[in-house]
Specification:
globular; single chain; MetI-like fold; 2 strands
Length: 298
């Protein structure tokens, strides 16, 4: 084939322009419009802005004074830690285990990835039934094994007394498979020669994981952590299905922003800007933490 076909760069623009226009209209313009809205007075969805806020940073000042926003930031911080430790951590362990299976690994790949293809709304309803106060699966099981007194109809209100836990468990469970696939793909790119050489030198399996697998998976792990952090900041559908209206003090930044969209648009826009800023800062921090000396020298 004539190599000159690869030197013609004009054809690339033909394919890039439609994608750029799509991004401009449906991503960048709404984002810039949202920033402008955060400085204006817009009460209800669909109404035009009447005037600029006085002072112009009024909404951002109110964010620091809003106790519900403080609670949302706190719960989101817990969610970020849970996603990094729970989702990425468990996914890494599962990927390491499955990568060592010679037969039947395809079965485990499908099983662990399956929750991510299920609708978050459906999962929220499912876990609502699991944690249900009366006739919920967990309470029925605890009564069956004798932990709760069935004769007195002793029950535990999981969603009221353990609200954060009941929200974190389904979120973590759903996304483990997503990071599992990313890490498993990274593992498949590590040459087996390195493990064979390490085994000949007397390295144990744990030493091979520590000194070969983990360092060579650094970029994949970094990608997973960035996605986990940004995903925790904007998670909405599953927590909102389980706890509509921030029931039992379960506000997250995403759910609290949505609760203000239809009654205080400019304040919700300001919360959206804060979410983006936090995501950018945390992503930058994660990338810096995962960089090695050679990355800085490059």
């Amino acid at each position: 084939m004539d190599a000159r076909i690869y030197k013609n760069k004009k054809i690339i623009i033909f394919f890039l322009i439609p994608a750029f226009i799509f991004m401009l209209v449906f991503l960048y313009y709404p984002f810039v419009r949202n920033i402008i809205n955060s400085f204006q007075h817009i009460k209800y969805m669909g109404t035009a802005s009447g005037e600029w806020n006085n002072p112009v940073f009024k909404n951002f000042i109110n964010i620091f004074k809003d106790p519900k926003m403080s609670l949302a930031l706190k719960n989101t911080g817990i969610m970020i830690v849970a996603t990094i430790v729970g989702e990425v951590g468990i996914a890494l362990i599962l990927a390491l285990l499955v990568s060592n299976i010679k037969k039947g690994s395809g079965f485990f790949r499908v099983v662990y990835f399956f929750p991510i293809v299920v609708s978050a709304t459906a999962l929220g309803l499912l876990f609502n039934l699991i944690f249900l106060y009366d006739k919920g699966m967990i309470n029925q099981f605890l009564q069956f094994i004798g932990v709760l007194d069935a004769s007195k109809n002793q029950l535990i209100d999981w969603k009221a007394s353990h609200s954060i836990m009941t929200m974190l468990i389904p979120v973590v469970w759903q996304y483990v498979g997503f990071y599992f696939v990313i890490l498993l793909t990274g593992l498949s790119g590590i040459p087996m020669d390195l493990y064979e050489a390490a085994a000949i030198d007397g390295a144990s399996k744990l030493q091979r994981v520590r000194y070969i697998t983990i360092p060579l998976l650094r970029n994949s792990i970094c990608t997973c952590v960035v996605l986990a952090v940004t995903g925790a900041l904007k998670v909405f559908d599953l927590p909102w299905t389980m706890f509509p209206g921030g029931m039992a003090d379960t506000w997250l930044t995403g759910t609290y922003m949505y609760s203000n969209v239809y009654s205080d648009v400019d304040y919700a826009s300001a919360i959206g800007v804060v979410i983006v800023l936090i995501g950018v800062v945390l992503s930058f921090v994660v990338n810096r933490l995962f960089k090695t000396k050679s990355d800085y020298e490059a």
